[in-house]
Amino acid sequence: MLRSSYYLQQLRDILYIAPVVLIAIMGHEFAHGWVSDRLGDPTPRMDGRLTLNPLKHLDPFGTLCLIFFRMGWAKPVRINTRYYKNRKSGIIMVSLAGPFMNFILAFLSLLLYGLLGKYGSADSVSVTVFIRLLYYSAVMNIGLGVFNLIPIPPLDGSNVLAELWPGVSVFYQRIRPYRTWILVILLASGALSRPLGTANAHIFNTLWGFVKLLLNLNPHIPQTSPFI
Q: Which of 32, 53, 164, 192 stands 20 to 30 A from 154 (CA)?
């Protein structure tokens, strides 16, 4: 009985997580493409990556990791840095655009979460469903944003570090064939759980603190960060 209840809860969680994962990935990759496009690079537009269709941005392994570990990655947007007036700053701006968009989406999710918690009817099934979706949206967007700041290819943090410290590019070239498996092993082994959980919890609590100040909320929703 306990086992069936556990699996039912897991299935219920996945049904909530799946749609917000698609939105988080779409926002992340669209931001990369949009910033590169604004810097004069037509490549993302020609590749069809300036779209809100999340299916254009999915990476199979990264999406599964995001669903099961709450940390993952999407299919990288192809860019051509020759179009940038300043290559170094252009790459850094494009790389940081994805995580920044996730943090914006997380904040908006928590803001709507707070509004529904304050003004919505606690007896309404639809309000309860939307509140849970918004909560998962905040969790997934923070997880995606923080994870992609890790300086391991193909994550965004590796592009930033390579521009700030060009010597690391040689190491990145050596591990490139194994990069996906390196990330999967790090996630599955739990090696990243504590440091990323701490970073995620800090950002979650900071964003939620802003929301509580803006809406003058009582501190009972949510009671604790989901990352610790």
A: 53
